[in-house]
Amino acid sequence: MSRLRKRVAVLISGRGSNLQALIDAAVGEGFPAEIALVVSDRPDAQGLQRAERAGVASRVLVPKELGGRAAFEQALEQALREADIDLICLAGFMRILGADFVGRWQGRLINIHPSLLPAFPGLDTHQRALEAGVKLHGCSVHFVDSGVDRGPIIGQAAVPVLPDDEPDSLAARVLTAEHSLYPRCLELICLSKIQLLEGGVKSTSSAPAESAILANPDRL
Ligand code: GRF
Fold first, then answer.
1. Which is catalytic among the residues 113, 126, 137, 142?
2. What CATH fold (topology level) applies to the domain 1-95?
């Protein structure tokens, strides 16, 4: 990954609001990455329209049509190679990638998950956070390893859980945080300020800018 602006592929399955946040960040002056390719495993993913509007190349690779996961991953690898991709962002991509694929892209494959990992891996994170009665919830960006929603954590953003929250209201608050966190983490990785080393994340980026305490209720 030696070129100045890394070439990033974003893998999606649906709405693509995180894709949009990455596209928007990447057109900003001085951003160290360009979104060079969008890959969807669903032809009807709304994110494909976002890619088209932004003039980003996209591919639709449907595992069932290609003959299963192995064929899908082969086609994906080829698409990534053809587009000369340095780094992959999973953004609402609803498939588990195989260990070989993940191993080949280790340190260059990241995901955003809507919870403060390691709490609430998997689905329905907002509902489960409400049921658990947590007072802070949020999102995590992490390097992908062979587990589901697991792997060294790159960055997290927390939001308060409010007394009248429903899963949808909490999801919306977390999503707003996702849209800031994901581009920021991508930026730091592209600048080599965050790296995956020997199973851990090494960060040479500055400490959190604002308050070191995020509390709910506040004023400790
Ligand atoms: C986000 O909440 C993301 O954290 C999760 O799936 C959702 C995708 O939303 N992995 P979008 O497609 O980016 O709008």
1. 113
2. Rossmann fold (3.40.50)
